[in-house]
Amino acid sequence: MLVFMNSYFGSKCGDAGSWKLGVTQDVTSTDGCVLLGITLSHVEHQLVKTEFANSKSYLYTGQRPSDFVSMAISKNRPTSFKK
Question: Which GO terms describe its molecular function (predicted)?
């Protein structure tokens, strides 16, 4: 798989020819990776917070509008966390 990934020198799968075993690569700048069928064609407007306390991990997400309005409009995006 590593040879396959490094044999692609197009502009749609991370930094061409630089894939290494056990090393992650950010493919955001290339809108995903066509070799793996990953397409990043959207933006998620979400507010996320993590907390670590008493040997536990907590994930908080933003309070989304209950009327399903578009999150693409900045006034509709979360500004606080729900419990």
Answer: Wnt-protein binding
